[in-house]
Design brief:
Helicase, Ruva Protein, domain 3; 43% helix; alpha/beta; homodimer; four-stranded parallel sheet; 199 residues
């Protein structure tokens, strides 16, 4: 039996589709929205519409921005000869928060995943090659995830960039800081040994 | 530092306000929406607007509905002389799912909570009294939550309905089915003993 009115059910279903939201939370959110004053409820739909209209890819690095160029690409103090390649804007934000990286980025908007039908042409690989082809780039740091798709993408990009004769590096994988070796999983531990550095 | 573009940040903040959603989930949802095709993204905002426009309180029981009367109040097979009073539509759905109750409902839209500034006038108490005053009601089952606010509301309503000389009952509180007595909390266990039934 259908317990909710149709428009309410439709609203619940929209929230259920979102990542990290189950049926109960979707229901709770829908009732929360219905309980809001009219202007606060429409502020939510306005925010969705506004973000979808105004946010687009940066003309250079493909990061999400509301201007033609994102604040990082516009910043002249950053080192524009070093590009850190990331899968998505969330990864970019995570790296920015470390305040350790002074170069610029390139956002791929995904990773190569043949099973999901995502090949290099769905990503911003072409745009990356155009930037590299423009000269002036000294190093490419590949910071895709450490899962299968991320690794495959890293290897694919490395092969693609090799002919340009610029430095290519991959971020380090190993033990997270503060963990006990005895509790580390085998894959991480072997990556840590493999990637050991002289001291 | 502000890492996200303003419209994106605004979208994240809207989701952060929702119940059960933290900063990380809000961010994940916002990026998910930005990654959707335009029509799917606007389907979300349309669903919000449509629900807020079309859904309102049932003229009789104050349940959320898109028609003048909700499907339960319209249903002639139900016993309209027994009213089950609940705090919200979610409670109503929970009771409906048991398929045990054949009467009708009254949705209070909250519980008396002086600390939050919610008195009886913010609830649909007036509408409930009008229904009772119309005669034909034989029993009121008070099914407000078992927390302080729900208990206070139940007591307040019982006092208010007493002069009408109709049967008033409160749903039973005790051990949830399938639990071990040794693990029950003291309050629940004392309520279970207090509410014991002869067998």
């Amino acid at each position: 039996m259908q317990y909710n009115a149709v428009p309410l059910q439709r609203l619940i279903e929209q929230f259920e589709k979102m990542p990290g939201i189950g049926r109960k939370t979707a229901q709770r959110i829908a009732f929360y929205i219905l309980g809001l004053p009219k202007d606060e409820a429409s502020a939510i739909s306005d925010a969705i519409n506004e973000a979808c209209e105004k946010i687009h890819k940066c003309a250079l690095c493909c990061n999400l921005t509301e201007d033609e160029l994102c604040p990082i690409c516009k910043n002249e103090k950053r080192d524009h000869s070093v590009i850190c390649v990331v899968e998505d804007s969330q990864s970019l934000i995570a790296i920015e928060k470390t305040k350790e990286f002074g170069g610029v980025y390139h956002v791929l908007h995904g990773a190569v995943s043949p099973l999901d039908g995502i090949g290099p042409e769905q990503l911003t690989v072409k745009e990356l090659l155009a930037r590299i082809g423009g000269g002036e780039i000294k190093e490419i740091i590949i910071a895709t995830d450490s899962d299968i798709e991320g690794e495959a993408t890293a290897m694919y990009l490395a092969k693609l960039i090799k002919p340009f004769d610029i430095k290519i590096s991959r971020i380090a994988f190993g033990l997270p800081v503060g963990t006990d070796i005895q509790y580390a999983d085998e894959v991480t531990l072997s990556r840590a040994i493999e990637g050991r550095r002289s001291m």
